[in-house]
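Annotated sample (chain length 216).
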Amino acid sequence: MTTRRRLDLHDLVRELTEPTQHRELYMRKRKPRYHTTTSPPLLVQLDDAIEPKPSVDTGTPRPATSRPSASIEAIDTANLIDHEAAQWLRHLGQDDPGNAITCVRQVGALAISQDHCGRRTPHRDGRGKVTCCTAHRIEADIRRWWNWARIVTRWDLPAWSPDNTCPLCGSRGTLRIRLVEKLATCIDCRETWDDTTIGLLADHIRTENGELGQAS
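Output written by the structure step:
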């Protein structure tokens, strides 16, 4: 199994707002072949997780709040992404288009023209929040939106929900973890972890479960 490269800002926006193709290599009669699948935009998949319906290419309408309780995580996630993206647009002097996909696209496009600190990796404070420049702050938020959507939209393969507390807010049972993809989020405080930080979350869970320090 190959390790997926870390996505940049353009990749994140594309997967959130555009259909994506995935190619898997397999052998047939000793010759390499590729199986190609096309997935809807993550924001469309998120909307479908709220209430399954045919995907559309024109964008994702703002989700209604009167939906079944089983889809509450998808509703909260869709509303939060929409709200934060609209906040960024207004902060950057633009009008809110009223559509989640268009909103995220515009935020991503505006990010490249914002002030940049010049660092390859952003500076973070003690809580992990990006503090260095507008460009890095926007990228960090878009990466969080992508992380949330990747976790919540996989309704056919539910994320692992351990009976542990979130190391940031202390809420119990709110962690949602995708072990294979090395992605995690807390559905209460909305902190996220990816392949670069998931080890810290794993250590927290093992410590809480009394697994660290035990003799093997």
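Annotation: The CA atoms of residues 75 and 196 lie 28 Å apart.
Annotation: The longest strand covers residues 20-28.
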